[in-house]
Design a protein that fits this description.
The chain has about 300 residues and is mostly helical. The protein has helices at about 5-30, 35-50, 55-65, 70-90, 95-110, 125-140, 145-155, 160-170, 175-190, 200-215, 215-240, 245-275, 280-310. It is globular.
Length: about 300
């Protein structure tokens, strides 16, 4: 008997919403309570990056599809892409940030909705993007200055970029994008309606509550680790064993551990190096977001190639 993935994700969304609401209430009552970026760093290193820690397994599938005898070729290309993204970021930070925000929006929108529908359609690209834009636009709506300061820490010094963001804020463009994302969520709720579709709005309100009450970094960490990554990990556990969630979970931990630990080591070494030149909290922000960008691009490319060949 196969595992009811939608049911698991539905209850996960409810629990996440209740957790977020409770945490927001606590933070609102104790205004002086601050969450250290070190805590965010720890969660992203453990739970966050682990959802991509089976990319080496998927890479083996891809090498077979393309009739490549040596799987080390995949590792080489993957690592090169990671390094290229980091290098490009240091030379062209504004363009890199914009591309990262666009690609991340599409990725978040797609990953957070695809598991609900069996029928996939290439025309959904815009809808995926608008749904995922909620992750980008809500911190700008509720914590504009703080979000801008994070962008500046990511080496983005282009004044025209910030003038554009100020224009979007003062002319309600951010609010318009937020409303468009809301409409996309309503569309997915009503499209081939099933009771489990309500998790779309549990997720929507969770993201809004997170970004309204919490700092941009901690709100992103909560979403990335405990909603996006956790849900993706659930799908991987089910793929590993469709009949036993417990066994699939154990297999996932076993298979994901090596790459998770290796990636965490590189993150920590990068943090140690940057902490010699920047304050610790600033160095953490650089490592988190530039590091995630360097992993996101090859991860998404791998997912795309596998999905394309499976079709």
């Amino acid at each position: 008997m196969s595992i009811p993935v939608k049911k698991i994700n539905f209850f996960h969304s409810i629990i996440f919403f209740l957790l977020v609401s409770s945490f927001a209430l606590i933070m609102n009552q104790f205004e002086n309570l601050k969450i250290s970026p070190i805590i965010c760093f720890f969660f992203i290193l453990s739970i966050g990056i682990s959802h991509g820690a089976l990319d080496h397994q998927k890479g083996k599938k891809l090498t077979k599809i393309y009739n490549l005898e040596n799987s080390y070729f995949f590792y080489l290309i993957y690592l090169m892409l990671v390094l290229i993204v980091i290098l490009i970021w240091f030379f062209f930070p504004t363009i890199s940030l914009l591309l990262f925000l666009i690609v991340a929006s599409y990725h978040f929108g797609k990953e957070d909705i695809d598991f609900l529908f069996y029928k996939k359609n290439g025309s959904n690209i815009i809808l995926y993007f608008l749904k995922g834009m909620l992750i980008i636009v809500t911190p700008l709506l509720f914590h504009f200055i703080e979000t801008i300061n994070i962008f500046k820490l990511l080496l983005v010094e282009n004044e025209n970029f910030y003038l554009f963001l100020e224009f979007t804020e003062s002319n309600y463009i951010l609010l318009l994008v937020f409303l468009m994302s809301l409409l996309v969520n309503i569309y997915y709720l009503t499209n081939n309606f099933k009771f489990t579709n309500f998790l779309i709005f549990f997720d929507f309100f969770s993201i809004v509550v997170l970004n309204y009450f919490l700092t941009p970094l901690f709100a992103f960490t909560m979403y990335f680790c405990f909603l996006h990554s956790f849900r993706h990990s659930i799908s991987l556990m089910v793929e590993l064993d469709e009949n036993s969630f417990k066994n699939g979970s154990l297999l996932f931990i076993k298979k994901a551990m090596p790459l998770t630990v290796l990636t965490a080591v590189f993150y920590i070494l990068s943090l140690y190096f940057l902490s010699n030149y920047y304050q610790l909290n600033d160095a953490i922000l650089k490592v988190i977001f530039i590091g995630l960008a360097s992993l996101t691009f090859p991860h998404i490319l791998l997912e795309y190639l596998l999905e394309k060949n499976e079709k």
